[in-house]
Amino acid sequence: MAAVPARAAEIGAASMLGIQLWVEGDNLAALNLYSRRVDTLDDDSEQIGLLFASHAAVAFASVQDMNHMRTALATRDLIGQAKGILMERYQVTGDQAFQMLGQGQQRQQPGPAVGRREPSLHRHIEPAILPSRRRPS
What we know:
Largest sheet: 2 strands, antiparallel
Number of strands: 2
Number of domains: 1
Strand content: 5-15%
Strand order of the largest sheet: 1-2
Distance between the termini: 80 Å
Order of helices and strands: HEEHHH
Shape: elongated
Structural class: alpha+beta
Helix content: 40-55%
Radius of gyration: 27 Å
């Protein structure tokens, strides 16, 4: 590990304090504090760093939650579109269309790509689960 102190000295860091960022058991990142002087990061520095790190971790976790929510909403929209197409095309209920999507997803890549690949989806679903098309009389 001699390379790390040597590299730190090259960039002018004589002292360093690393604090793990976490929220409810999730290890998010680390807050690293540097000083150009030796022995300047003391117990007070650690307490201030811990306070700052706790606020940073909450903010970071909030951003992650918002990103997860956006992804979930986009995925929900794609799944809804695919369900609607299957319901119209095969005259099935919403639950049946959802089951069809689940079976098609097992044969394809995971995630919302199922909705985007709908035109070829019927080739990936077992023929036994596809109801026959009903023609209007």
